[in-house]
Amino acid sequence: MGLVVVGDAAVNVSLMADVDAIVEQPGYRGYRVAQLDAGIALGWLYLTTDAHRRLGGRGFTFYDALVTEECSPRPENQLPMTAFAFGNLAE
User: Fold this and answer.
1) What is the reported pTM?
2) CA gap 77, 54 in Å, rounded
3) What are the boundaries of each domain within the chain?
4) Which of the two ends of the chain, N or C, has the fewest CB atoms closer than 10 A to its terminal CB?
């Protein structure tokens, strides 16, 4: 992703979804549902890391192809929706 903050974080969480399965029933609006679901999960991560003030955290969006390569090998049909980085590396 080319972001220093992501590389400096102790933990990086990639929120992924099986887009093919989601799009199967509601059509292409299913991708929006996957994004919304990832956004809600991202909100919970923000709340959790904020409750533990030392952790800090940031959410990120990105170009799917680049992050998909970084997440490989990955489960079949899984695409990254968003990412969250938190915690500081020990010095």
Assistant:
1) 0.72
2) 35
3) 12-88
4) C
